[in-house]
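Budget justification aside, the reviewers requested a transparent look at the raw inputs and outputs of the sequence design task funded under Objective 1. We therefore reproduce one unedited record. The lines immediately below are the C-alpha cells for a 396-residue chain.
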C-alpha cells in the first residue's frame, strides 16, 4: 500500500546524525514516505556526511564524523513545489543550517511550511532541533513562538521574537502551533509522538507496553538508538540494560558505514545511556527484548546471564528482536534452530551453524515472535515488524 503521508527532510553536510536517522527510519516504519533533499546534491548517489555531537568530558560537545546519509529527492524541485505536497518538514540540527540560513531557496522553503504571510492558511508541522531553529528565525517565523533548542540558541530565539523555553528535561519537545522544537536527539521519542499527532495519526496499543534493549560497549549506533526512540514515540516504555554497567552509565556506540557486502571501518558514535540496573531486570515486566548489533553482542554472548535472559524471553512467549550481529546472542541462546531469519554477511555463517531453517540475505523477517534483520539500512522494516507483533497500530 502506498504511503498516505509524505514528509520533507531538509539536509546538508554535518547535520546531526541521529536527528536525521531517527525521524527518517521511524516515520518509514509507520508508513510515512520521507524525501531527503540537500542544496547542491542530487539522487541517486549523492549523500550528506553527518556529524555525531556528544559530550566527551570537555566544556562543549565534540563533533565526530557520522554516517553517509543518502539524498532521495531533488532540492530545487522541492523548493519550487507547493508545500502542500508534504505533510510536514523536518530540519535536523548541526552546522549545516548556518549556510542554509543565508540560502534564499532554503529560507523560502522553510517559510512556505511555517505559513508566514500569504501562506498562513497552508501551515504544515515544522520540526526544528538543536541549532536548526536558526532557519526558522531566518524565515521570519519565530515571532511569538514558544521554542526550545540547544542552550547557545537562546539569544537567537529571543532576538527573533520567540519565547525561550528551557530544555528541561532534555527529552522535552515543545509544540506551539505548527512548530515542534527540541534540544536535539535525546527528545526524539517525544518529537515522534508530537509529529504523529500533528499529522493526524491515531496510535493504538503502545501505552503501557515495555521493551528492553540489551547493550554493551560498541553497540551499533543506529541499531540501538533508532528503534529505542521510535518505540518510545508510539507510547512504549523503553529501557536499556547492560550486564557490566549500572543505571546512569553509558555504553559507547560504534558506527559502521559501508555497503552490506564490504567490510567497514569502526568509528566512535554517540553515548547510549543505560536506564535500568541489570539486577532489576525481570522478563515478566517486558513485552519484548531487542538485541542491537555492532560488537556488543560479542560480549553479551559470553555472559551467561545475558544468554539466559534472552532464552527466558523466548520461553515466555515474548517478542525477541535482533539485528545484525545481535544474532550471535540468539545463536548462543539456541533461538535460531529451525527458524527463518534475515542476516547480513557478518552472521550468515553463524545463522547456518545455529540451525536456521532459512537465511534471507538482507531485509527483515518475522518468524512467529522472532524478528531478525540484516543491518541498519533495514531498520524501518525491523521496527515495523516489532510494532506489529506488539499489536501497535499507526493509522492516518
Amino acid at each position: 500500500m502506498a504511503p498516505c503521508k509524505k514528509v520533507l527532510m531538509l539536509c546538508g553536510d554535518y547535520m546531526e546524525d541521529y536527528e536525521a536517522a531517527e525521524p527518517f527510519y521511524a516515520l518509514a516504519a509507520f508508513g510515512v514516505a520521507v524525501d531527503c533533499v540537500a542544496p547542491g546534491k542530487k539522487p541517486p548517489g549523492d549523500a550528506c556526511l553527518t556529524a555525531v555531537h556528544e559530550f566527551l568530558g570537555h566544556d562543549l560537545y565534540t563533533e565526530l564524523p557520522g554516517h553517509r546519509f543518502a539524498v532521495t529527492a531533488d532540492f530545487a524541485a522541492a523548493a519550487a513545489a507547493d508545500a502542500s505536497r508534504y505533510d510536514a518538514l523536518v530540519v535536523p540540527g548541526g552546522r549545516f543550517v548556518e549556510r542554509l540560513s543565508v540560502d534564499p531557496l532554503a529560507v523560502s522553503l522553510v517559510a512556505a511550511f511555517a505559513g508566514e504571510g500569504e501562506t498562513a492558511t497552508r501551515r504544515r508541522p515544522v520540526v526544528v532541533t538543536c541549532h536548526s531553529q536558526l532557519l526558522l528565525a531566518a524565515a521570519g517565523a519565530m515571532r511569538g513562538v514558544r521554542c526550545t533548542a540547544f542552550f547557545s540558541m537562546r539569544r537567537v530565539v529571543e532576538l527573533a521574537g520567540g519565547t525561550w523555553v528551557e530544555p528541561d528535561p532534555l527529552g522535552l519537545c515543545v509544540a506551539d502551533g505548527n512548530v515542534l522544537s527540541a534540544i536535539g536527539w535525546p527528545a526524539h521519542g517525544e518529537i515522534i509522538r508530537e509529529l504523529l499527532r500533528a499529522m493526524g495519526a491515531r496510535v493504538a496499543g503502545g501505552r503501557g507496553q515495555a521493551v528492553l534493549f540489551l547493550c554493551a560497549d560498541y553497540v551499533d549506533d543506529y541499531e540501538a538508538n533508532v528503534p529505542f526512540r521510535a518505540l518510545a514515540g508510539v507510547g512504549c516504555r523503553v529501557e536499556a540494560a547492560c550486564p557490566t554497567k549500572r543505571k546512569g552509565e553509558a555504553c559507547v556506540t560504534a558506527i559502521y558505514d559501508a555497503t552490506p557486502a564490504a567490510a567497514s571501518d569502526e568509528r566512535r558514535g554517540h553515548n547510549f545511556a543505560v536506564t535500568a540496573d541489570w539486577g532489576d531486570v525481570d522478563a515478566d515486566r517486558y513485552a519484548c527484548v531487542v538485541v542491537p548489533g555492532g560488537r556488543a553482542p560479542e560480549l553479551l554472548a559470553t555472559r551467561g546471564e545475558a544468554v539466559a535472559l534472552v532464552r527466558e524471553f523466548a520461553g515466555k512467549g515474548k517478542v525477541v528482536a535482533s539485528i545484525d550481529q545481535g544474532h550471535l546472542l540468539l545463536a548462543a541462546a539456541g533461538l535460531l534452530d529451525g527458524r527463518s531469519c534475515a542476516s547480513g554477511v557478518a552472521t550468515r555463517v553463524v545463522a547456518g551453524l545455529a540451525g536456521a531453517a532459512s537465511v534471507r540475505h538482507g531485509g527483515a523477517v518475522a518468524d512467529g515472535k522472532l524478528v531478525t534483520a540484516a543491518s541498519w539500512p533495514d531498520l524501518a522494516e525491523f521496527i515495523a515488524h516489532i510494532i506489529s507483533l506488539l499489536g501497535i497500530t499507526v493509522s492516518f
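DSSP finds 13 helices and 23 strands in the chain. The chain has two domains: 5-200, 204-395. Computational costs for records of this kind are itemized in the attached budget.
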